[in-house]
Amino acid sequence: MVKVSDSLAVQLSEKLQQANKTKVQIEAPSKVYPELTIKEAYSIQLYNIAERVQKDNGIVGKKIGLTSKAMQDSLGVDEPDYGILLEDMVIPSDNPVIKSDQVIQPRVEGEMAFILKKRFRRPECHGGRRARRDRVYPRLH
Questions:
Q1: Is the CB of residue 59 less than 8 Å from the CB of residue 85?
Q2: 134 to each of 7, 24, 67, how far by Cα in Å?
Q3: Residue 17 three-state SS
Q4: What crossing angle do the helices spanning 38-54 and 6-22 adopt, rounded to 10°?
Q5: pTM score > 0.85 for this model?
Q6: What is the rounded distance in angstroms from the CA atom of residue 51 to the CA atom of residue 45?
Q7: Which of 4, 15, 67, 100 is deepest in the core (most CB within 10 A)?
Q8: Which pLDDT value is given to residue 102?
């Protein structure tokens, strides 16, 4: 299997950044480069997050998406995805409006948002989850 090179990963990152900036959809990198692995795709995501954080766009949380089988089937994937939430992704509760020029391809998925009292550490992830939850909210994503 061919591995995606570092230079191609940076090139794909830049294309995704440009699409986010201009709100013009590009073809999915996984369609153009079917050899792209999940690990490489998440590396590209982290590169983009690091670029955005450098521009004073702070991290406010993490997310798991595509948790329902129906949404996974609609997008042709077989597992949830995860990502990092940044300040500019937060929609203020006092004015919950999303303008069409802020998104590329709007979709809505109902999810549960868990606000944690304390950060999970990998070795202790399986025990005491309920005790770490502070609040649970219904959420549209």
A1: yes
A2: 42, 38, 21
A3: helix
A4: 60
A5: no
A6: 10
A7: 4
A8: 84
Q: By the 8 A CB rule, do 82 and 64 touch?
A: yes
Residue 62: per-residue pLDDT: 83
Give the pLDDT of residue 29. 92
Residue 139 backbone dihedrals phi, psi, to 5 degrees: -150, 145
Task: Report mean pLDDT in 10-residue bins for the chain, 141 residues.
Answer: 69 92 91 90 91 91 84 88 88 85 79 70 53 70 65
Q: What stretch of H or E contains 56?
A: none
Nearest 10 degrees: Cα torsion 50, 54, 60, 66 = -30
Q: Do 84 and 59 form a contact (C-beta atoms < 8 A)?
A: yes
Per the structure block, which two tokens stand in for 86?
């940044």
CA–CA dist 58, 87 (Å, integer): 5
Residue 30: what are its φ and ψ, rounded to 5°? Answer: -70, -25
Fill in the DSSP letter of residue 4.
P
3-state SS, one letter per residue, for 66-127: CCCHHHHHHHCCCCCEEEEEEHHHCCCCCCCCCCHHHCCCCCCCEEEEEEECCCCCHHHCCC
